[in-house]
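Blinded run. Sample ID left blank on purpose so nobody reads anything into the name before looking at the predicted structure. Input follows.
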Amino acid sequence: MADTGRPPQERGVEARVARLESDVAHMRGDVAEIRSTLNRLAPIIDEMRGFLIAKLPELATKAELADLRSEIKSELAALRSETKAESAALRSETKAESADLRSEIKSELAAFRSEIKSESAALRSETKTASASLRGEMQAALAGLRSETKAEFGDVRREMAELRLEIMQRPTRRQSIFDIFAIVGLIGAVLTVAAGFAH
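Blinded prediction complete.
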């Protein structure tokens, strides 16, 4: 650096002054920018101010908000109370209807059981009566069949005895053969008749 012939203190002061002047120049530029920004914002601020002035009467105050909160709380409390009352009434009605339904079901089941028991008893009685009647008819039929079979066998025995006597009284061999065939045929017919009665 060239020596200007000034003392060192003056050179330091001049440097500080130069820096201050530079800072002041920067500050002036910043202030100019701030002014420009404020000039752009001024119409918007005025617009917002006019809007707020126009809308302030319409906005609710703290007292009105407090009243609104109180009304809402009271309405909610009333709604809760009504809901509880309706729920209790609904529970009571449901219990009563359930009790009535149980009672009706029990009575219908009891009546149904009684009808089934009476019908079962009547069916048992009818079955017993029919079985007894069928047994009686079968016993009577079997007794008649036995009696007829005994009578038929008695007749057969008598005829066989008579045939034996006749055979013994007839001395010819040919007549004896014919008599034997007659006896065998008669026995076959009797057995056929007996088998028919048995079926």
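Unblinding after everyone has recorded impressions. The chain has a mean pLDDT of 79.
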